[in-house]
Design brief:
alpha/beta
Length: 165
């Protein structure tokens, strides 16, 4: 077994606020790129945990991230649907991936509040949904820092020269 990552492995980081379309994009990338999707919300719900409980979520996301880097290091394309709401969070993930020798693409979705609320409200009505209220969704706004061109350029391009979302 070599010391570097297996050829072709990479992480596709999908980030944005609730209702931005992360899950839709992540599922599409999973199929288009032949990847493995790691979605914290799906896992947390399956484990009977509240995805909105920040403390266990942070611990879980750290472990899921380590797992993503291991999989990518073995040559898999790994689609990771994390919030990635702040520039420092995304920078940390990018630096950790690069230290591990894993290319990382950024697919960030910046969608206006009213559209996100429309989507979340529709999702709230689905059986088993993790319900997010309008005030709670609005409160998340203060944390979101959309990536600028310089930040996007610090991530790796998609194979073939395509850019992330």
């Amino acid at each position: 077994m070599g010391t570097g990552p297996a050829r072709g492995g990479r992480v596709l980081l999908v980030c944005g606020l609730p209702g931005a379309g992360k899950t839709t994009l992540a599922r599409r990338l999973e199929v288009e790129r032949g990847g493995v999707l790691l979605c914290p919300d799906d896992w947390l719900v399956a484990l009977g945990l509240d995805p909105l409980d920040a403390r266990p979520r942070r611990r879980f996301e750290r472990e899921l991230w380590r797992h993503a880097l291991r999989l990518a290091g073995r040559g898999l394309v790994v689609v990771v649907e994390l919030g990635g709401w702040t520039r420092p969070d995304r920078r940390r993930l990018r630096e950790e991936a690069h230290r591990a020798g894993v290319p990382i693409e950024l697919h960030a979705l910046d969608v206006p509040f009213e559209e996100r609320w429309r989507r979340v409200e529709r999702r709230n009505a689905e059986p088993g949904a993790v319900v997010v209220g309008r005030d709670e969704l609005a409160g998340f706004e203060r944390w979101w820092q959309p990536p600028d061109d310089d930040e996007r350029a610090a991530f790796d391009p998609a194979p073939g020269g395509g850019a992330g979302g």
